[in-house]
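Slack export, channel: ligand-projects

TW: morning all. Re-posting the request from yesterday since it got buried. We need the structure predicted with the small molecule present, not the apo form. The ligand is zinc ion; the SMILES is in the block with the sequence. No rush, but it would help planning for next week.
GE: picking it up
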Amino acid sequence: MLTVFCSPSRYVQGKNATDALADEMAKFGWSGKVMIIACKSAAKLLSDTWQSNLPKAGFTVLIEKFSGECSTSEIDRLTQIAAAQKVSVVVGAGGGKVLDTSRAVAARLDLPAVNCPTVASSDAPCSALSVVYRENGEFDQYFFYKRNPDLVLVDTAVIAQAPPRLLVAGMGDALATWFEADTVINARKRNQLGGGTTISARALARLCHETLMNDGLAALNSVRKKAVTPALERLVEANTLLSGLGFESGGLAIAHSVHNGLTTLPETHHYLHGEKVAFGLLVQLVAEGKPSSLIAEIMQFCSQVGLPISLAQLGVKDHSRESLQGVAVRASAPGETAHNEPFAVDADLLLDAIMAADALGSQFAA
Ligand SMILES: [Zn+2]
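GE: finished. pasting the full token output, ligand included:
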């Protein structure tokens, strides 16, 4: 098996990085009309900067509001606008769903893609894939692209303005990175690129974990005060770059499959991707039979920063085997990354692990 590693062409991060967006785009030699697909809060916060900076570098700007779901109908709508407007670069500004949508639009038209995450809530910004949902919020499918985003630009002054819960959700997504990569490596399974894992991806996934443990709480405290600090900078890099490279070139396992399974329960739709992944990680560690001391350490971290470790904390009311059967079936569907474990995974095994993880987490939280 060949090892494969991928990454964005360029990653730029720092306080007020938005001021550098036009220059960074000009460095690629791009010109013409830039379509910025933005969520409401990103447009409110950054429109003035875009409108004043981009024309100075020779770009014309078209700002399009995102509808709220990364669905095929929203991707179709924005692709039609971009094609009709003869756009030459597509920029996404907002959370994971906005970026996943703008990536899909850029890929459909084979245009350069720029991601400007305004929250550090997931590892989506650096990847060459989108998570597409149905209109009702259920997980639909992954879209895989020919290449990663050309440019990822992260303005930590903007990230610091976002609700702390979003940063915490990003920690949940990043917390799973090391354990999923480690599983894939040890099982000699394939990463998200279909190849073996490089020692570089392994090291980055490990660094992601260490950064979370060292800086997670300090970074959370700094966004609570809307302050940009070195700890926040490191944590944002872990949530965005390290977790992104780590999951894609490292690989995924049970944690993300359980996330996908949980999306079949409507009551979890109000919970963020990383929050569901955090519980999914607990399920993975239980299923893998990891030592109680490690599981306790992870639950301790989750409790400290406010990540869910039980079904109740994810809004799930009915904890019976019958009602969770659908979650386990979805999480063990063919093609799910749960099958990257070194042992055979089926719905029954996952259901046992979900029940046991929930019992552990509930007890720990009490
Ligand atoms: Zn994820």
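GE: first-pass observations. Residues 219 and 232 are 4 Å apart (CA to CA). The longest helix spans residues 199-224.
TW: perfect, thank you
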